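On clarity, I found the account of how folds are encoded harder to follow than it need be. What matters is that the chain and its backbone geometry are given together, residue for residue. For the editor and my fellow referees, an illustration may be useful. For illustration, here is how one protein appears when written out as sequence plus structure tokens:

___
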Amino acid sequence: MADLLTALFIPLDIYIIFVPDFYPLGEVGCRIHYVLWDILSNCSLLIITAFTIERYIIVMKPFFRQKLTLNSRVFKIVGVIWLISLSFCIPDVFYIDLLERKEYVFCYYSLTKIVSIVVAIEVFVFFLIPMTTILIMYIKIMIKLKTAQKKLRGSPVVGKQNRDKAAKMIAAVAASFFLSWTPYCIFRIMTVFPKFKYEDYYNVWKIVNYLCYNGYMSTAANPILYSLMSRKFRQAFKDLLKTPRVLSGNSITQKTTSTHDSIV
């Protein structure tokens, strides 16, 4: 859901890339745009981390699998993730502002000491901790697979394939996470700690700002990774695609029935 909603911002950000000096949505739109984008991106990052933790537990402690797959537990975890994202990002409403200078209109953060602290905490909570967690789990899984290689030779082939698949998928998640969100993390750090001369800072800022759109790569990569890692996700996605067809089929049946009744 978070990835799908994040993708809705793509047309607007494409417009901003080609018309960088005129923000089109006004002050209210500016605040809503960036607050929602922060909420959704942070939520997506935490969901990736939670999903990786689930894969890690299944590989390392398979007997916990049934407990993890309970729908009630999943909904609670997702709910907590959304609450954390909201609690961090809602205060941004008071720090985002619109700057209008003749033909130039910019949507930007008004930097204060409080904003700097909040941004630094967000970078730590929503990037450094998740990235470190994913890397540690991947390393532990690889160590376990190597040390248990002899035992795995005597174990069922399917079990070994599942473990190898999980390890590869976690590696893919880590790579996607790093490539997609590192530029955005650098961008946020630069907004808090500008240490360059103005000209150098502005040139670097423009480059990193464009690279921030790599975050949209994550919205495309995540569903693919989820579908490869989770049978339930694949089935839910298939059901989602089938729903419109079922509804259209029902509507056609209802129309045919009503027409038949009217003729009779």
